[in-house]
Amino acid sequence: MRTEHTDVVVVGTGAAGTAAAVTALEFGKQVIVCEKNSAPGGATNTVIVVRVIRDDPEFVEKAFLIHMEMTRWLGNAPLVRNWIEQDAKLEQWMREHEIEFQINYVTTLDNLGKQEDPLGGFPKGHLIAERAFLRGAGNGHGGVQLVRTLLKRIEALGGQVRRNSPVTSLIREGGRITGVVVHPKRGEAYVIRAKAVILATAGFNDDAEMLRTYSGFDYTLDRTGTCTQGDFFFLWPCTKLDGSGIRMAWEIGAKKGAMGVAPFAHIPGPGIIGKVPWNTESQLRIVQEQPYLWVNQNGERFMNEGIITDHFTSGRVIANQKGKCAYLIFDEATKLHMEQEGLDYTYFIFPASHLTDFDGDLERVRAKGNRHVFVEDSLETLCEKTEIPLDNLKETLERYNAYCDQGRDGQFGKPARFLRPVREGRYYCFRIYTTAYQTIGGVKVDGNTRVLDGEERPIDGLYAAGDLIAAELYGEPPVCGIGNAGIALCTGIIAGRDAVRRMEGE
Ligand SMILES: Cc1cc2nc3c(=O)[nH]c(=O)nc-3n(C[C@H](O)[C@H](O)[C@H](O)COP(=O)(O)OP(=O)(O)OC[C@H]3O[C@@H](n4cnc5c(N)ncnc54)[C@H](O)[C@@H]3O)c2cc1C
C-alpha cells in the first residue's frame, strides 16, 4: 500500500476536527484531514448557537461546579475542567478565527445555572454560558459558516483536506498509534503515517444496530417519522454518522466510554419534520413545545410540563410513557390566546411573540397526510382518533382545570403562567414522540482527550474529540448532552494542542 507521512491526521471535518486541525497547524505541524463525505462538516452544519462561558475565573469556577453537580460528579471531572477553561477562551478564539457571531444572551454570576432564559428555556445545567448565535451561510445555518471558515484557515495554513476519504482503520504498533488506513471513494487504499491521530468522527445516528445496543432505546431509522417501530425516530439521520470512528478505536483496544443520545420531543411525519437545516418557520414547531396540558396514552398527566424546556429530560420522559408518546392538548381559547395575547413560552431558537398563521400551517401539514395532528370538535371524537380512554381524559381535565382556576398546580408544581384550562372545542392535539439530535460518546478519554485502553492507560498518539466523547462529560449514562458544538470546538482545540505538546516532548 502507498504510504504518506505527516505529523497529525485528523479524521472528520465537523467542529471538533476543524478546530483540532487549525490548532495543530498553528503550532507549525503538518496536518492531513480526512473526511469520508464529499460535503464537509457533518452535524456541525446544523448548528445555530455555540455556548461560550464568560472569560472570568469566578464564572469558570461556578460553571465547573454547576456542571459537576448536574452530573452528580459522574462526568469525567478533569475533562470537564479542561473543557470549561477552554470554553472561557472560546469567544475570543472564534473572533480570532473570523467566525461571525453575535452574543445574544448575557448572564450574571448570580444567575448562572438557575435562571430561565427570558427568551425561552434550556436545560438548567446548561445555563452556565452565554450564547453565540452564528451568522448563517447560504441557505444553511451558522454551522455552515463555521465549518467553511475553519476549512479555509486549514488550507491557508498549508493543511490538506481530503474529501471522499473515509478512514477505515487505525494502525497500532505496540502501545502507540502510528497512522491510519484511508479507503478513498475513488482509487486505491493507502496509509498515512502520523505522530498523532485525532478522531473527530462523532456518533452513530445511522447505524441501527449500534443504536439498539448502546443507546438504551430501541430505535428506528424511519426517516418519515411515522413511528411504526422502535422507541425513537431520528430526525437527522442524514448526517450519515455510522459510528466508524468508535468501532475503529475499539478494534485497536480503546475502552468503551459513556454512550447515549441527545433526545428531544417532536411531532413526527410529513409536513412538520423540517428539511435539514431546521424548519424554523413552522408555527406547529413553536406550538409543539408549549408547556400547557400534556397527557400520555392513558390520558393522564405524567410530568410538570414546564420541563419541556429541558429537551434532554422531557425527551426521555416521553419515551418512558406507554406507546412511547405524549399528547399536547389545548382548546380554542388557548389558540386564540397564542394568536392575540401572545406566546407564554418560546424555545430560543424559534423566537416568536404571537402565532400568525397557525391555521395555515395546520392545513398544510394535514394536507400532507400527517397522522399525528388532530383538530376535533368534541372530546369523544378526539379520544376515538387518538385511542386515549375518554373517561381518563375527562377526569384529568376536571382535575387540571381546577388547578388552572386556583392558579396552582397541585399535582406537579408547574409554573402558574403555563396553567391554561382545556374546556371547550375545538380541541387541538399533537401526538409527540421522542427523537434525537445526535448520539454522544463512544470512547473513554483522559482529561486531555487522550484515548484510554482497557487498562485505562492512554494509547500514545490517539485522541478523540467532539460528539465522539461528549457523553464522557455527562456521566454514565449521560444526564444531558445537547448543544455540544462548543464542546466539540473546545475538545478539538485541547486534542490538537496536547498532541503537539507531546510530540515536542513537553
Ligand atoms: C439538528 C441539530 C441541531 C443542532 N444544533 C446545535 C446548536 O445550535 N448548538 C450546539 O451547540 N449544538 C447543536 N447540535 C449538536 C452539534 O451539531 C454537535 O454536537 C457537533 O456538531 C458535533 O461536532 P463533531 O465535530 O463532533 O461532529 P460532526 O460535526 O458530526 O463531524 C463528524 C465528521 O466526521 C466525519 N466522519 C465520520 N466517520 C468518518 C470516517 N471514518 N472517516 C472520515 N470522516 C468521518 C463525518 O462525515 C463528519 O463530517 C445540533 C445537532 C443537530 C443534529
Please tell me about this protein's structure:
With 506 residues, this protein is α/β, with parallel strands linked by helices. The chain has 2 domains: 2-204 and 444-503, FAD/NAD(P)-binding domain (3-Layer(bba) Sandwich), CATH 3.50.50.60; 265-435, Succinate dehydrogenase/fumarate reductase flavoprotein, catalytic domain (Flavocytochrome C3, Chain A, domain 1, Alpha-Beta Complex), CATH 3.90.700. Helix content is 31%, strand content 22%. It is built from 15 helices and 18 strands. The strands form 3 sheets. Strands 1, 2, 6, 7, 8, 9, 17 and 18 form an 8-stranded mixed beta sheet that branches. Strands 10, 11, 12, 13, 14, 15 and 16 form a 7-stranded mixed beta sheet that branches. Helix 1 links the parallel strand 1 and strand 2 (31-34). Helix 1 packs parallel to helix 5 (142-156) and helix 1 packs parallel to helix 15 (485-503). The longest helix has 19 residues, at 485-503. The model has no long low-confidence stretch (mean pLDDT 90). Residues 11-17, 34-37, 40-44, 46-50, 166-167, 200-202, 236, 239, 241, 244-245, 278, 437-438, 466-467, 483-486, 488 line the site of flavin-adenine dinucleotide.
Which spans have pLDDT < 50 for at least 5 consecutive residues? none
So, the CATH homologous superfamily of the largest domain? FAD/NAD(P)-binding domain
- Helix vs. strand class: alpha/beta
Main pleated-sheet profile: 8 strands, mixed
CATH class of the largest domain: Alpha Beta
Helical stretch tally: 15
N- and C-termini, Cα separation: 33 Å
How many separate structural domains?
A: 2
What is the second-level CATH architecture of the largest domain? 3-Layer(bba) Sandwich
How many beta-strand segments? 18
CATH topology of the largest domain: FAD/NAD(P)-binding domain
Instruction: Give the averaged pLDDT, no decimals.
Output: 90
Characterize the overall form. elongated
Bound molecules: flavin-adenine dinucleotide
Query: Into which percentage range does the β-strand content fall?
Result: 15-25%
Whole-number radius of gyration? 24 Å
User: Helix proportion of residues, in percent?
Assistant: 25-40%
